[in-house]
Amino acid sequence: MNKDKALLAYTLRLGDNALVLGQRMVELVAAYPELEEELANANFALDYLGQARMFYTYAGELEGKGRGEDDFAFLRDENEYRNFLLLEQPNGHFGDSIAKLVLYESFYLLQLEALVNCADTRIAEIAARAQKEIRYHLRHNSQWLIRLGDGTDESHSKAQGSVDDLWRYTGELFAPDEVDNVFEAEFDGPDLFKIQDEWRSNVAAVLEEATLTKPEDGFMASGGKEGRHTEYFGYMIAEMQYLQRAYPGAEW
Amino acid sequence: MTIALSREQVLEWLAAVVDPEIPVLTIADLGILRDVTIGDHVTVQLTPTYSGCPATEVIEKSVIDALSEKGIENVRIERVLSPAWTTDWISDEGREKLREYGIAPPETGASKRELVHGARTIACPRCASVNTAVVSEFGSTACKASYKCNDCLEPFEYFKCI
């Protein structure tokens, strides 16, 4: 894989991750049990959608075929998305959503912090903007996981169940493929092995404070980076793309 | 372009464009108006605050409209991401306007502060008491949190420090 292809693929993945997680959070808008979390979730979702737009716009420029943010977001098929499987998992209950965010954002923040120093100026600039937002998210979401884990017997057992269920999707975050390797070599991109070590110790610290048990590493699901998704993903994008598919070119 | 335009003149006109969500602040007060260059086009450099801030596009349109009123049609907007915007760029005048509007202005020193959140004291914009409490870390827009004053009992918004 050449340098240009890797840069485009890497940028699209960043966009796909932000979009898919943002869309899952959008599904919860107006469904949270209390106002503060409602606002937090909507604000956080907006950050992700904003980041997705910046990555997609850049991907369109790199590709040079006239595609823009909307084309990438709304007019691709399921197997063209390269997001992590973790992010497309259904929202489940509140503990599931929080556990997903803590596991992912603990990774994403480290990825962004590394990207700030990468050799591609545009990615570095977007990462510099985004890392401030994700730092704020992670602080908030970690506090929730701690409160749930160290809360009542029921919240503890539910939060433990959420972490256990989602753990199998965390292996994919740190399994470098050709795109990751070329991006790391050519653009001084993130070292996923180094990030994995830091992620393990950061996540372990939050779980410990939450009185939760770190699951054993067992079977790890993968495929998102190759466009092989879990069954939930098709339903998600069917809803997300409905308007553009039914009314092509529709605008506000 | 037939009329000779100066950068300073254009900046002065643009300094009157207000933020749609906090209309007491201009884009100059906020520190998001970065620069203007005059060539074949008038290029206006703006910095987004939050990645997903819905005001960004409204502000870009307001900039185009403001220059259009002055007879300048050849306008390009350039989004400048780096260095990333920080609340430290809000001018002193902007901070005073925020306070008068009922929003507690952000603390300065964002880059350090964000790491050691928690130990901050936010003064009530109405009575200046520091006996205040956070109601919600989130508010009506991505950039604000909700507070209340324990002395004058008024709820107020705090412009988050990032």
Question: Main attributes?
Answer:
heterodimer; A: 252 residues; mainly alpha; Ferritin; 69% helix; 0% strand; globular; B: 162 residues; alpha/beta; GMP Synthetase, Chain A, domain 3; 4-stranded mixed beta sheet; 3-stranded mixed beta sheet; 5 helices; 7 strands; 25% helix; elongated
What is the helix tally of chain A?
10
**Biggest sheet descriptor of chain B:** 4 strands, mixed
CATH topology of chain A: Ferritin
Give the CA-based shape of chain B: elongated
Low-pLDDT segments, ≥5 res of chain B:
none
The helix/strand order of chain A is: HHHHHHHHHH
CATH topology of the largest domain in chain B: GMP Synthetase, Chain A, domain 3
As a percent range, the share of strand residues of chain B is 15-25%
Indicate the radius of gyration of chain B in whole angstroms: 18 Å
Q: For the residues shown, what is the average pLDDT of chain A?
A: 96
Secondary-structure-derived class of chain B: alpha/beta
Biggest sheet architecture of chain A: none
End-to-end C-alpha gap of chain A: 39 Å
Radius of gyration of chain A: 18 Å
Number of strands of chain A: 0
The count of domains of chain B is 2
State the CATH class of chain A. Answer: Mainly Alpha
CATH class of the largest domain in chain B, please?
Answer: Alpha Beta
